[in-house]
Amino acid sequence: MKVLLLHSLPPEASPGHVAGEFDLNDAAAGIAEVLPGAIVAGVRGEVRDVLTVLDAERPDVVWNLCEAPLGRPDREAHLAALLEWLGVPFTGCGSETLALCRHKDFTNAVLSAAGVPVPRSGVFPCIIKPADEDGSSFIESDCVCEDGAALEQVRRRFAGPVVVQEFLPGREFAVGVWGGEDPDHINIGETVFQNGLRIITYSAKWDIESADYANTPLHYNSEITPPLRAAISEAARGAWRAVGARGYIRVDLRLDAGETPRVFDVNPNPEISPGVGIYRASIEAGWTWEQFVHAQLEWAIRWTMHRR
Fold first, then answer.
1. Which CATH number fits domain 101-118+169-306: 3.40.50.40, 3.30.470.20, 3.20.20.10, 3.30.70.940?
2. 3-state class (DSSP) for residue 185
């Protein structure tokens, strides 16, 4: 089986983003490590360049690591759509899921319609965030607003559409979910907030030297009662089905005042670099990395064959 690891290269400059956010070299290297003979190709994202690589290599399956073609996160779904059009099997979620989950307001509506618990609207305290960004972009501590005046002040900082939802006061969980077309495997990590920090800011996610990063460790050994674990798993699986996921995703949930887990974000293309993200979730669940990688390739081929 000929495998092509196709990843987008980081842009020379991306205002408002740190360079490491779009650097997929470590992720590609981590996957290539367990796939001897796999071809690794970095592309800027020009359609002609992608087609040239595909024509030259003629892969049986592509591991899709193109998160920001041409440095544009909003074009994440475009590469997947191109592969679908060409009939080339690829890992991860399809273009429709990637496009849907780029818009938090749309995703929230789809989840709610499917019966998946989500945060309420129109209540305080609330949290405001960009509707069409990911990776915690532009999120700072003051995005948690206690009243309308604070909300309006933060709203002025965002140029585009926003989502305003109830700030959930309870524990926060990052749930790795993976499988073919069904959410067969789950592992639950808990983000522990320290020293007054209440949310995962952009610095907490991307600046490993920051205080916010140090104050938001992720643990996989938290005490979670069986009923709560079941409720979290049910909500995460419901989110998978509602957005039409496949391969692997991360679902972020938080407990409300009544300790009901509510989904506040679905990431269909989560971090997969060695030691973090879905890589760590699968290892913590008892899988080997080699087992996870080969399963994803098998599922990708099967998914494409079913749709021909």
1. 3.30.470.20
2. strand
Phi/psi zone of residue 188: left (φ > 0), alpha (ψ -120 to 50 degrees), beta?
Answer: beta
52 φ, ψ to 5°? -65, -45
User: What per-residue string of b and e applies to 223-247 under the rule 16 or more CB within 10 Å gives b?
Assistant: eeeeebeebbbebbbbbbebbebbb
Element (H, E) at 248: strand 247-255
Q: Is the pTM of this model over 0.90?
A: yes
For 129-144, give the DSSP string: EETT--TTTT--GGGE
> Which has the closest alpha carbon to 27: 35, 16, 37?
35
What are 166-188's pLDDT values in tens digits? Answer: 999 999 999 999 999 999 999 99
Distance between CA atoms of 52 and 44, rounded to whole angstroms? 12
